[in-house]
Amino acid sequence: MNLDNHPCFNVRAHKKYGRVHLPVAPRCNIQCNFCNRKFDCVNESRPGVTSGLLTPFQAMAYLEEVFRQKQNISVVGIAGPGDPFANPEETMETLRRVRETYPEMILCIATNGLYLEPYVDELADLKVSHVTVTVNAVDPAIGSKIYSWVRYDKRVMRSEKGAEILLARQLSAIRKLKSRGITVKINSIIIPGINDDHIEAVAEKMAELDVDILNCVPYYPNKGSVFEDFEEPSKAMVKEIRDKAGKYVKQMRHCTRCRADAVGLLGETPSAGLMRKLQECGH
Ligand code: SF4
Ligand code: SF4
């Protein structure tokens, strides 16, 4: 397994190596105001396109076909369409199966981080080497404008209380990931008028935690979400924010806002054949 061949974490690998996402995680444990649950999680996906859903068993059949058709896949990731740890049984079972069958594959997870920490040891044991956590705010007052609720310990919490719990859980999960030697990427969605002035503070805090890379992702207007009328940030705004954040943490600038069922090189449109296979394997 060559960890440098991860196309999202290493810009030099992204034209050569691809990744496949297994859409095994439908439910979520928070509600982001930029998300419409009828579609994919936008933590790590382009909104507006529904995915097929797979059970862990179906995911293995689908993977077999993916590897038959594509020889350049270096990473298997789970990125939704909800949150991997709002579906921990499906997520962990899928990772175990993939690791057993494909010991050389890089394994990757993208999550909001709320319920990540209890699984970090098992992730490390399974050699999950790359984890992305979406952190949109490090101030609960700003977080309260981004999240309508957070469900933690069977309680639904709103406004600053919810944002505070989410942030605390994210920070301790990131610390634990780093203590287990896992490479950490942070995604921060740039939402104009809400957190565009705050991403630098996110970067500063993430640098303290020694994260490896920060991906400032421009918000993508998402029909049916609370923020549906918000404008997408301009290219100039995105560049300025990345430049400021780059003083603290290395920046990812080649993100293509992948779908939860993405397969192939970053930015590559999945082939109709593989999408059909996904539907056939799925439920
Ligand atoms: Fe939507 Fe993802 Fe946020 Fe959950 S974590 S509400 S699926 S964007
Ligand atoms: Fe991992 Fe995200 Fe890249 Fe998928 S798009 S492989 S989840 S970093």
How would you describe this structure to a colleague?
Keywords: 4Fe-4S, Iron, Iron-sulfur, Lyase, Metal-binding, Nitrogen fixation, S-adenosyl-L-methionine. Residues 14-259 form the Radical SAM core domain. GO terms for molecular function: 4 iron, 4 sulfur cluster binding; lyase activity; metal ion binding. Pathway: Cofactor biosynthesis; Fe-Mo cofactor biosynthesis. The structure is a single chain. With 283 residues, the protein is an alpha/beta fold. Helix content is 33%, strand content 18%. The chain is built from 8 helices and 10 strands. It has helices spanning 56-69, 88-101, 120-125, 140-146, 159-179, 199-208, 235-245, 272-281; strands spanning 18-21, 30-32, 73-78, 106-111, 128-134, 147-152, 155-158, 183-190, 213-218, 263-264. Helix 3 (120-125) links the parallel strand 4 and strand 5. It is globular and about 45 Å long. The two termini are 32 Å apart. Mean pLDDT is 89; it is low at 46-50. Bound molecules: iron/sulfur cluster (2 copies).
